[in-house]
Write a structure and sequence with these properties.
The protein is mostly helical. It has a domain at 29-128. Helix content is 79%, strand content 0%. It contains eight helices and no strands. Helix 3 packs across helix 4 and helix 6 packs antiparallel against helix 7. The radius of gyration is 23 Å and the shape is extended.
Length: 159
């Protein structure tokens, strides 16, 4: 804690802060980083494998195989969330399970599962986008800005 904040605390509070800091468990940064790296790598490797399967067996191109591979990753993530497996993986892997597609699907599905007792419209529908709503809003806004930039470059290039 900084010395400015310590000056506002009473001596008893300062003693307690020192006591608490001495007993706070140290974070295992290297171990957590390695676990996140391995888990994220496995998820990405599964996604790449799915993309390869769609190219090899379903005659997709490299460009078009990404969409069904992403959809399969989302479905797998939602199923694992519903079965309670994804949360256990996240406890072990930490940030490695926050790969954008699977982490987003887990967020939406877990919020929907948590609020299902409140009804489908107000419970599931109203609460499953509380955390994910900001991500969706940011994505829509970013797509709008990128589209404006692309249109303006195309328009200026045509002059």
């Amino acid at each position: 804690m900084s010395s400015k904040k310590n000056k506002k605390l009473t001596p008893t509070q300062q003693d307690y802060q020192a006591f608490a800091q001495a007993r706070e468990p140290k974070r295992k940064v290297l171990r957590n980083s390695l676990r996140a790296f391995v888990a994220g790598g496995i998820i990405c490797t599964i996604g790449q494998g799915l993309q390869w399967i769609f190219i090899k067996y379903f005659d997709f191109t490299e460009t078009t195989a990404g969409n069904p591979a992403t959809a399969v990753l989302i479905i797998i993530s939602v199923l694992l969330t519903g079965l309670g497996v994804y949360d256990k993986m996240a406890q072990w892997a930490g940030a490695g399970t926050v790969i954008p597609v699977t982490g987003f699907a887990n967020t939406v599905a877990s919020a929907a599962i948590e609020h299902r007792s409140e009804g489908f419209v107000l419970g599931v529908g109203g609460n499953m986008f509380k955390l994910a709503g900001s991500v969706i809003a940011y994505g829509v806004f970013s797509a709008f800005v990128v589209a404006l930039i692309k249109i303006s470059i195309t328009w200026l290039g045509g002059m």
